[in-house]
Amino acid sequence: MKARQKTTIRTIRLQSNLDSVLQKDAEEKRTTVNSLISSIITRYAEWDRYADSFGFICLPRNGFKLILDALDDETVKKMAEEIGSRQPKELMMFVFKKTSLDAFISQFSLFSRYAGFGTYEIGSDGKNYTFVVHHELGRKWSLYLAHLGAQGLKSAINIMPRFHVTENSVVFEFSIP
Question: Can you tell which superkingdom this protein's organism belongs to (predicted)?
Answer without folding.
Answer: Archaea
